[in-house]
Amino acid sequence: MKKTVITALLFLIALSESNAQKIKGFQNVDPISVGFSADRLDRLDQWMSSEIAENGMAGATVLISRKGKLVYAKSFGKSNIETERDMTTSDLFKIASMSKVITSVAILQMYEQGLFLLDDPISKYLPVLKDMEVLSSFNENDSTFQTVPSSQLITIRHLLTHTSGFSYGGDEISKIKAKQRFGDISIFGNTLEQFVIALSKIPLSHQPGASWSYGYSTDILGYLIEQVSGQPLSEYLDDNIFSPIGMSSTGFNIPTNQYSRYAQLYRSQRGELTPIQSPDHRLPENKEITLFMGGSGLISTAEDYMRFAQMLLNGGTFNGKQIVGKKIIELMSSNQIGSLNYPDEMLRLLGEANKFGLGVNVVTELGSINELYSAGSYYWEGMYSTSFIVDPKEELVAVFMTQTGTREPIRAKFRLMVYQALNK
């Protein structure tokens, strides 16, 4: 009975899925002409439809380019099950940590203008971060803790590589944040300045440069952009990245007249999809975001992010607009953490033997033997199961957008389905 129901759902999804669409700034070509197998791209269709039929996600959009030509642009399922709205390539998504790559590019854009050096102490520009303390012991009974002084100043490079010690949590840091009411900082009403001041009172999880730890580093870089440019982060990104390459639907706030394009976030559990409505995941229509979190706060579309990712593959340019130089792209997509390794809990996401660049996970020669990705390719993901990958060797870009509470296998399977379709 279950197999019959799934088969029927697959048929309905196939009827409702969009055909390959035209995206401004890209030329559509027959996938076969640039080395893709049409039959194997059908596997991608089938996998997407199967995930939706089995309630792994409500809907999704996939865009793929090769050699600068668009070969695949399809949407599947619903962006909102309750309103029965079909998913489209222009739907709006919370891209969460995929924001980090954009903010990192903005920092590198400023760097190549000579506004600072990567090994400058961040305290040179943000004095509140000068005398940071590092957690040395923690009392589980009452959440009291001891610290030691930081052995060195935190640099801009530490922040770009997530080796600064500003981590999202772990049990001890999370309890310290709760005790100090760090969670009272709101994206509605507070500012990056207030956020960084509050963060400066939380101890680092390790000495700067000693380990890799995922956290708030990119949000601090967003505040650096504000201080150096004299603009809110939202305006700087719009003026220097979004507007030049046509990312017209990307930003921190959704215009009221575009709110219907916002894809609903769902949680997939035990074969059921449940809409998530909490303020952290669903932006209210009547509130403006004032705290521009460069590490997690952007909203975008598959089309816009495809333009951004193609710009990376193109060596910093898209449609005649240069955002950064080719040497910047080479820098950000090279190993910047040396012999440091990812913590064990991140290996499933980022891969054995891979390394972090400046804002992206870089596939190494050793890491490339574990997956289909080429050595030198790089990617990043968002907690709502979004993902993108850039592969310079294959001249390939792929973007995946959905809104499903973290499901790690979806993102890895998306990349697998893209790569298995290559035949030349």
What is the strand content? 15-25%
Could you describe the largest sheet, including whether it forms a barrel?
9 strands, mixed
Distance between the termini: 41 Å
Integer-rounded radius of gyration:
21 Å
What does it look like?
This protein is α+β, with helices and mostly antiparallel strands. The chain has twelve helices and 17 strands. It has helices spanning 2-16, 38-53, 99-112, 156-160, 171-179, 192-199, 217-229, 233-245, 302-313, 326-332, 347-350, 408-420; strands at 27-28, 59-66, 69-80, 85-86, 93-94, 133-138, 145-149, 266-269, 272-275, 299-300, 317-318, 321-322, 355-356, 361-362, 378-381, 387-391, 396-401. Helix 2 packs antiparallel against helix 12. The two termini are 41 Å apart. The model is unreliable at 1-19 (pLDDT under 50).
Keywords:
single chain; 30% helix; alpha+beta; globular; nine-stranded mixed sheet; two-stranded antiparallel sheet; 424 residues; disordered N terminus
Quickly describe the structure:
Helix content is 30%, strand content 17%. The protein is α+β, with helices and mostly antiparallel strands.
Write the layout of secondary structure elements.
Elements: H1 2-16, E1 27-28, H2 38-53, E2 59-66, E3 69-80, E4 85-86, E5 93-94, H3 99-112, E6 133-138, E7 145-149, H4 156-160, H5 171-179, H6 192-199, H7 217-229, H8 233-245, E8 266-269, E9 272-275, E10 299-300, H9 302-313, E11 317-318, E12 321-322, H10 326-332, H11 347-350, E13 355-356, E14 361-362, E15 378-381, E16 387-391, E17 396-401, H12 408-420
Parallel strand pairs: 1-3
Antiparallel strand pairs: 2-3, 2-17, 3-4, 5-10, 6-7, 8-9, 11-12, 13-14, 14-15, 15-16, 16-17
